[in-house]
Amino acid sequence: MKLMDTLIWLHITIGKRGVRGEAVKEKLQKRLRKPVKWIILRCLGCGFALFCGKECQTLGWKDHKAECKGLRKAESIPDIETRMLGRIVLRHKEICSGKDKKTEGFYKDRTSERTILEIWAHTEKIRKDSYAMNKFEEIYEHLTKFYEEKFMMSKDVVFELHCRDYINRHAISDKGYVKEIGKGLYLDLCAYDHSCRPNTIFTCDGFVATLRGLNSNVDIKNRSTTFYTYIDLLSSLQQRKKQLKDTWYFDCQCERCIDPSDHLLTSILCPACPSDNRAEICIFGEHSYKNDKSGVITCERCGSEVPKDYVMEAVSAMRFIDKIIEDREVEQMPKKTRVEFLEDLLERFTKILSGSNIYLCKLIQ
């Protein structure tokens, strides 16, 4: 069983002024993994927007009309955050005024019965988040400079729409699921909750999102028992919880997050065990070999107490690996230097981190 959801709002990152239509067509064919038999038309107003034909241009005008005027006067193209929110605001304004019922094709290919105001917003939590509020103020400033006042709504309404977009939007990937080619808001897909041990997977085929069960027992229609992941699952418990809390404002208590064995992803090797038979020790969480009050860890295999300095060395190693991966430092090195650097790190850290440690695995990867 599967759920297919079509986009209600979309922004695709592809065009630049001066890019030829055929070049865009070829690019889209590669990204959307299907032939694009289109006549590429460029908007005569702004010279930026591209359409796949006359019908597409006519249907797309309701979303493009506001940004068309903005693009003509803009010194630079606004980022995806600004333009996507602008499209959402414009559509919501037309729905509120009743123009949606008078506009042909306004709900073309619409499958969801939900409205944008029915999806999660977390407005109060976002108000208390200084980073998120600064982000909104920045987007709102760009929005009001780019769009004419007649296309805008009050700041309070824009904030409500921004919160829903911020919490619920999805990345649209290329066919190899390597590169993000745009963002979309799927009203049905965002009704499903997250799990770090999901029983479904979300995929993109062009602009259509599909939620597929990972086994035959999954009932897609039952949202209380159907989950997919919002994040990269190749992360430690601490990383996953932080990302989910920072972005979606909830403490994950899925079956994986409450499973003590998940701490193996940050486990270390006992420094006192024989080199050919070293025990894997979990340094986070509650375990029989860890004193709850003092935090002292005793190896169950050899009976030795694990020095706190050794534990801190392992924690520092994991933080270091995480930083160089996040900052993409290794990718910027010449090939020979990169190989030598990674080999040196592996030699050092395989003496401390266990074979189950996710940071060591990422280093090897």
UniProtKB/TrEMBL annotation:
Keywords: Metal-binding, Zinc, Zinc-finger. GO terms for molecular function: zinc ion binding. InterPro entries: H3K4_H4K5_MeTrfase, SET_dom_sf, Znf_MYND. One of its GO terms (cellular component) is nucleus. Pfam families: zf-MYND. It comes from the Eukaryota. Residues 42-68 form the MYND-type domain. This is MYND finger.
